[in-house]
Design goal:
Length: 465
């Protein structure tokens, strides 16, 4: 056995066995146990009941946490997802587990019909997936996973294998999804943005006639209270959009819903910076990707920055103009290292001001404006606080020198994650658990927060005036 193979085998054995775990009652051990319970052998489900398949941006966040307990599993998590990538470059938002009954989740594989309706777009034939996408956190996750154990990554050829797929994923978003012509990616369904039920979607969704409620059965209500979930009317509109997209054979640009979202594009920019780091690791130059990230940052500011609101707003491509709703998505560009100082400072002020109340009236940033008419502290993405958006904000605060605020947010997230049994989301005022518990990305990001802060990406860095 050559040295590379020996190294791979030795580190794989270490990953399977783990180092001696912390005390059984520690946050580290509890979070690691959740990920172990939700591990399928090749990927991690968000939760065993409500979400029994592999979700795209969930897996990216899960890999970021898994790298601290098993770099091999973290690499496998991303590799499994990318194995389901379509020929046109899209990474589907769900990869279905064939052993799960069809009625366990809706929309199920027989709704999406990926292998037939997605044939022209290059959908894989050996695995069933959805046809829509989710935010592109994947290159960022891959770079962080590599840096957790560079030796193992190099021995397995991890970056060599995932880089072309990640580059194709970004090409798809930057070309096929540039529906507004400004160089930014559009989402064609609220589920793609990840913050499914946000009031930011209410206005563009009004254009969409809902599918009849008798035409589908909502499996989500088997696991969550109706008052915490999207309404039947909104769900009917989600189903209509997905049906039309499927029946159009997943061709982009034809639907009634097309929105440029600040968080989606900020994560794409962050991942472009990460791809630059990956390119350098592989012996190429990352200059072109850094330059692209800078162009996208400028486009994001030009297209979605609203000085009057003190934050970024969604841009409705179909109707034209900004959507006047303050969602947590509009704070996520704080993640970007080259955001102008004045914009970064204004975003911090908005996060800690009356609309989000961070550190004053709320423990974690709510998903929607506390003063908005549609605010609800318990209903899915219409007010509750989520740990992934908290994690992104904590990193953004550190990136822009707000270390004390970042540390306070980190401590609040760790406290609430453990107290809520790693809840899917929580009441932003009280921290009471909402949705399901023992949720994988909450556990994974808890693990990450327990470790020292690392730079999210290699970049030319720093703020610019």
């Amino acid at each position: 056995m050559d040295r590379t193979a020996q190294l791979t085998a030795r580190r794989a054995d270490r990953d399977i066995a783990y180092d001696p775990p912390p005390a059984a009652d520690s946050p580290h051990a509890g979070a690691a146990r959740v990920l172990e319970e939700n591990w399928t052998g090749t990927s991690t489900v968000p939760s065993r009941g409500l979400y029994p398949h592999q979700w795209s941006w969930d897996s990216a966040f899960i890999a970021i946490g898994l790298r601290h307990v098993s770099p091999l599993r973290a690499q496998t998590e991303l590799e499994t997802l990318l194995d389901a990538q379509w020929g046109d470059g899209r990474v589907p938002h769900i990869v279905f587990n064939p052993s799960v009954p069809l009625d366990a989740y809706f929309p199920s594989p027989d709704f999406w019909r990926s292998s037939t309706a997605g044939r022209d777009a290059g959908a894989p034939r050996t695995v069933q997936t959805s046809g829509i996408v989710q935010p592109p956190v994947h290159a960022l996750a891959a770079w962080l996973v590599h840096r957790a154990d560079p030796g193992l990554s190099r021995a397995r050829g991890f970056l060599t294998r995932v880089y072309p797929r990640l580059a194709a994923w970004h090409r798809y978003l930057l070309h096929r999804r540039d529906l507004g012509g400004a160089g930014l990616a559009s989402v064609v369904h609220p589920w793609e943005q990840g913050m499914d039920n946000s009031p930011c979607w209410d206005a563009p969704l009004r254009r969409v006639p809902p599918a009849p409620t008798r035409s589908f059965r909502r499996a989500d209500l088997d696991h969550g209270a109706a008052e915490d979930r999207p309404t039947d009317l909104d769900y009917g509109r989600y189903v209509r959009l997905a049906t039309d997209y499927r029946d159009g054979e997943y061709a982009d640009g034809q639907g009634l819903f097309a929105v440029e979202d600040p968080a989606f594009n900020a994560l794409l920019i962050a991942s472009e910076h990460a791809l630059a780091g990956i390119a350098r690791e592989l012996g190429a130059t990352g200059t072109a990707r850094h330059a692209r990230a800078e162009r996208l940052t400028a486009a994001l500011i030009d297209r979605m920055w609203d000085p009057a609101s003190g934050m970024f707003l969604c841009h409705d491509v179909r109707a034209g103009g900004l959507i006047p709703e303050r969602g947590v998505s509009g704070l996520i560009p704080l993640l970007l290292p080259t955001l102008p100082r004045d914009i970064a400072a204004t975003l911090v002020g908005t996060a800690y001001g009356p609309h989000f109340g961070l550190g004053r009236t709320t423990r974690l940033a709510p998903s929607y404006d506390l003063l908005g008419e549609a605010f609800d502290p318990h209903r899915y993405w219409r007010g509750p606080a989520w740990f992934n958006t908290g994690w992104l904000l904590e990193r953004g605060l550190r990136t822009h020198g707000e270390r004390d605020r970042a540390e306070a947010l980190r401590e609040a997230m760790l406290d609430l994650a453990v107290a809520s049994d790693f809840a899917e989301y929580v009441d932003p005022y009280t921290g009471k658990a909402c949705g399901t518990t023992r949720f994988s990305w909450t556990a994974a990001l808890t693990l990450d927060l327990l470790h020292d802060f690392e730079e999210l990406m290699d970049s030319k860095g720093g703020n610019r005036g």
